[in-house]
Design goal:
By secondary structure, the protein is an alpha/beta fold. It is built from 12 helices and 9 strands. It has a single domain, classed as Rossmann fold, CATH 3.40.50.
């Protein structure tokens, strides 16, 4: 069975994966969903939330066990797992990006949102940044439209209640990674066709620039762990069942 580490995106927490974890565990896999600094129930203040501290949190979790993990990142979590995988490639057997940002060395999340294919990103269109250090917020109405547009009302209300403000530093900081090292780690992508946060065109550009062994296409919004939980679980189960040396597919 496979070790799976789940990393949430901006404004989120380990709670994002609540519908994904049980079926993965029932299939016999070991699942670790973590709170990044400042996310979920983590008490880190905004001045302690940086790309470095987020990646270090993931690296520490990876290093705590000898078994390499299927490392999964959602949205901003894609930037974090990219950095962490470059820092601890010995602890990562596969990378999976769930409607997530995939930066190259020297790119930040904001750099990717500013590409032509990022036009229409409803998070960047509605985000409010205030304070020092800067912290981002998104109104409930904007979040419901940008992230949970295909979710049922109960799931949306539950998620909106749990969301927290997001320190901006992880958005603006470029990753410092070894692209050659990352190229040795198999990666896959969960593409969300009705995403209003990372537009489908931007997802496709990142996939083209970072070839993936498998691409799973879901008719989902930016929260597939709610709007398409069964399909997301199926994709992760397929990846978790792979053994080193399995032939690539799409």
């Amino acid at each position: 069975m496979t070790r799976i580490v789940l990393v949430h995106g901006a404004f989120g927490g380990a709670w994002c994966w609540s519908r994904v974890i049980p079926p993965l565990e029932q299939a016999g896999h070991t699942v670790e969903a973590i709170d990044l600094p400042g996310g979920g129930d983590d008490p880190t203040p905004p001045d302690g939330v940086t790309l470095e501290t987020c990646a270090a949190r993931v690296s520490d979790v990876l290093a705590a066990k000898s078994e390499p993990a299927l490392l999964v990142g959602h949205s901003m979590g894609g930037v974090v797992v990219t950095q962490a995988a470059s820092d601890r490639p010995d602890r990562v057997r596969q990378l999976a990006f769930v409607c997530a940002f995939m930066p190259a060395d020297g790119q930040s999340l904001l750099d990717l949102t500013r590409l032509p294919e990022g036009h229409g990103d409803q998070i960047q269109a509605n985000i409010v940044v205030e304070g020092e250090p800067p912290v981002a917020t998104l109104s409930d109405a904007a979040a419901a439209n940008a992230i949970y547009n295909l979710c049922d009302a109960e799931s949306t209300a539950w998620a909106l209640e749990k969301r927290r403000p997001q320190a901006v530093a992880p958005f603006a900081t470029p990753v410092a990674v070894d692209d050659a090292v990352l190229a040795t780690i198999p990666r896959s992508y969960v593409f969300t066709a009705r995403d209003q946060s990372i537009p489908p065109g931007l997802q496709r550009r990142m996939i083209a620039e970072h070839p993936c062994r498998k691409v799973f296409e879901l008719d989902a919004d930016h929260a597939p762990f709610f709007s398409a939980a069964g399909e997301l679980v199926d994709a992760l189960l397929e990846l978790a069942s792979e053994r080193p040396g399995d032939s690539p597919g799409r």
